[in-house]
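Anyone opening a protein record will find just a pair of labelled lines. A complete record is shown below as an example.
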Amino acid sequence: MRALRTAALITFATTTLALGACAQKGSPGWASNGHAANVPAATPNGPAVSCIPIAQIQQSQVRDDWTIDFRMAGNKWYRNTLPNRCGSLGFERAFSYETSLPQLCNVDIIRVFPSGGIPRGPLNACGLGQFQPVTLAKQAK
């Protein structure tokens, strides 16, 4: 029984990591003024969209408990500002999602993925916002 439970946790962790991971920190809003040190300024460059194609997502960066930037094919960036704070997202800097569609949409739910890859209890479930195409400000290194 214990081996079965361990195998289930490993399968869950592997599946969740494969579904998506990110990095982030801060307070609400995608605004260009950057609400936290890890939220680079961004300038909108088009209308917000409800969905982005999963196959084109090359990277996601969790900036804080409110903000996730997605780098798409062609080096195009979309900023998603969550409508509500997603507790511990900025600390854990990783999330997973499940969808039966080939796109990630503002009606989808993400779950904070805990450090170490093994859930220690219920994961925070958080709704996504609109995907705003942006040009990110250059960050000093």
